[in-house]
UniProtKB/TrEMBL annotation:
Keywords: NAD, NADP, Oxidoreductase, Pyridine nucleotide biosynthesis. Pathway: Cofactor biosynthesis; NAD(+) biosynthesis; iminoaspartate from L-aspartate (dehydrogenase route): step 1/1. The iminoaspartate product is unstable in aqueous solution and can decompose to oxaloacetate and ammonia. The keyword NADP applies. Its EC number is 1.4.1.21. It comes from Elioraea tepida. NCBIfam families: PRK13302.1 (NF009825). GO terms for biological process: NAD+ biosynthetic process. GO terms for molecular function: aspartate dehydrogenase [NAD(P)+] activity; NAD binding; NADP binding; oxidoreductase activity, acting on the CH-NH2 group of donors, NAD or NADP as acceptor. It catalyses: L-aspartate + NADP(+) + H2O = oxaloacetate + NH4(+) + NADPH + H(+); L-aspartate + NAD(+) + H2O = oxaloacetate + NH4(+) + NADH + H(+). This is L-aspartate dehydrogenase.
Length: 267
């Protein structure tokens, strides 16, 4: 049995918390944290087994597994205590890990683990397998309804107003590392892909603001010596946060199940 603490109770965290409260073999939700404590308390009040509502820094003292499901700006405050305490940190804001790879070194010293779920993407098992061989290129093309990109720092810096876009428009082309900086709340999938494959500077990313799509759509292309992959996922945006695909909390749940499962499927 692993105990679980969740930081962030939004589109990802609250859905995951509800699923754990409904009962998942081998996992028990014991604590949650969010910015607004009263709101968090109200969110879990009706749970069958209400978890403790606490500060993000205290989750690691209460749970074996700390799930980060908060904005990127809170990443370090949530994940560092978990690493210092030697816990398992399951992270959603993957873009925030890229400039903090020293946390991985620190985890090696404390015995902690950092787990990046597939999240809103697909096929990281195949990308990881390919990366055991020789990979020539990895490309991600992301298309989102314009409102799924609104507020990104890169758009503001370049004077791009996505709300006025009426035809599919490429608003960014660059590396996964540059994308994670410019779109911290929109392309965690690119960061996860980079960590699975050939590094953030070599992973190419295009972002399209596309008024013709209703789903957050990601296409991964990999050219390797053993395989050529083209994979597309079309995510239904969640009601709580249209930037976040509804599959994301389900991916985290599947990931958590894998921590205790006797039968584990996939890489
Ligand atoms: N890896 C992946 O594939 C994906 C990753 N993501 C990323 O996952 C993260 C969470 O996404 P999502 O659930 O949609 O976000 P939401 O905006 O729906 O929810 C964020 C939650 O974090 C809480 N929060 C805000 N500030 C803090 C803080 N300083 N400390 C603790 N909690 C805080 C909020 O609480 P309050 O309401 O009190 O402010 C809220 O409960 C984001 O970084 C997002 O970009 C999203 C989709 C896919
Ligand atoms: O990568 C992200 O942050 C979110 C995303 O694109 C999605 O949910 O489809």
């Amino acid at each position: 049995m692993l105990t679980v603490g969740i930081a962030g109770l939004g589109a990802i965290g609250l859905t995951l918390a509800k699923a754990l409260d409904a009962g998942v073999e081998g996992l028990r939700l014991v604590a949650v944290a969010a910015r607004d404590r009263d709101k968090a308390r109200a969110a879990v009040a009706g749970f069958a087994s209400p978890p403790v509502v606490t500060d993000v820094a205290d989750l690691a003292g209460l749970a074996d597994v700390v799930v980060e499901a908060a904005p990127a700006a809170a990443f370090e405050a949530i994940v560092s205590p978990a690493i210092e305490a030697g816990r398992i940190a399951v992270v959603s804001s993957v873009g925030a890990l890229l400039p903090r790879m020293q946390l991985v070194e620190r985890a090696r010293e404390t015995g902690a683990r950092i787990i990046v779920p597939t999240g809103a993407l697909l096929g990281l098992d195949a990308v990881r397998a390919a990366a055991e061989g020789k990979v020539e290129s990895v490309t991600l093309v992301t298309r989102k309804p314009p409102r799924g990109l609104a507020g990104a720092p890169y758009l503001e810096q370049h004077g791009i107003d996505v709300t006025t876009i009426t035809t599919p428009t490429r608003v960014f082309a660059g590396s996964a590392r540059e994308g994670a900086i410019g779109f911290p709340a929109n392309v965690n999938v690119a960061a996860a892909l980079a960590l699975a494959g050939i590094e953030p500077d070599r992973t190419r990313l295009e972002i399209w603001a596309d008024p013709t799509v209703t789903r957050n759509t990601h296409t991964v292309t990999v050219e390797a010596d053993t395989v050529r992959l083209t994979m597309t996922i079309e995510n239904v945006p969640s009601e709580e946060n249209p930037r976040t695909g509804k599959i994301t909390p389900l991916s985290l749940l599947a990931c958590l199940r894998g921590l205790t499962a006797t039968l584990k499927v996939g890489t």
